UniProtKB/TrEMBL annotation:
Top EC group: transferase
Domain N-acetyltransferase: 15-171
SUPFAM superfamilies: Acyl-CoA N-acyltransferases (Nat)
Lineage per the UniProt record: Bacteria, Bacillati, Actinomycetota, Actinomycetes, Kitasatosporales
EC annotation from Swiss-Prot or TrEMBL: 2.3.-.-
Molecular function terms, GO-annotated: acyltransferase activity
UniProt entry keywords in alphabetical sequence: Acyltransferase, Transferase
The protein, known as: GNAT family N-acetyltransferase
InterPro entries listed in its UniProt record: Acyl_CoA_acyltransferase (IPR016181), GNAT_dom (IPR000182), N-acetyltransferase (IPR051531)
Domain of life: Bacteria
Transferase keyword on record: yes
PANTHER family linked to this entry: GNAT FAMILY, PUTATIVE (AFU_ORTHOLOGUE AFUA_3G00765)-RELATED-RELATED, N-ACETYLTRANSFERASE DOMAIN-CONTAINING PROTEIN
Transmembrane parts of this sequence: none
Length: 176
């Protein structure tokens, strides 16, 4: 296990962020199968634990490939798993911010806290790569988190995976 302060383990004021593993399957399936966590993208909800298992495997493999990926987010006070998130390197060459939190913990600033840690880790790892948050227009809570990070909304752009129009939040224009 990595020591606090290394990318695999980051401690924030209230969160213990550790590289996601299959040991987190039950808690992350519970969060990812909750329809409330996918209100902005209902088809993304995990209907079966195997979906979560495969998703964790892909995220965990990115630690080996890129040296940085998603963390499982736990409360430092209790160890309770409250979500997952972090930066992931994406083609053609940027860090994508991602997070998903247990609805019981929404509205407490955890998304911002995790996102600040993600931004700092990405900047430390590869400062030359842009840090981007692709956000659906109707996901106002995530848009507020991006604004708290100091990211600018560059407007609706086709996101790189499926070409869906989403708001691109970044320090600099992600198109170059």
């Amino acid at each position: 296990m990595s020591e606090p302060g290394e990318p695999h383990c980051v401690l924030t004021g209230r969160l213990d962020l550790r590289a996601v593993t299959q040991q987190d399957l039950a808690e992350l399936y519970r969060i990812n199968s909750d329809p409330r966590t996918w209100a902005h993208l209902p088809e993304g909800r995990h209907a079966h634990p195997v979906t979560t298992r495969e998703w964790i495997a892909r995220a965990a493999a990115r630690w080996e490939e890129d040296g940085l990926s998603y963390w499982t987010a736990r409360l430092r006070t209790t160890g309770e798993v409250i979500g997952i998130g972090g930066p992931q390197r994406q083609p053609p060459g940027f860090w994508n911010l991602y997070y998903r939190l247990d609805p019981a913990h929404w509205g407490r600033g955890y998304a911002t806290e995790l996102s600040l840690a993600a931004r700092a880790a990405a900047a430390q790892h590869s400062p030359d790569l842009p840090f981007v948050a692709w956000i659906h227009a109707h996901n106002t809570a995530s848009r507020r988190v991006a604004e708290r990070l100091g990211l600018r909304d560059w407007g609706l752009r086709p996101e790189p995976w499926h070409g869906e129009l989403m708001h691109a939040y970044a320090e600099h224009d992600p198109a170059g």
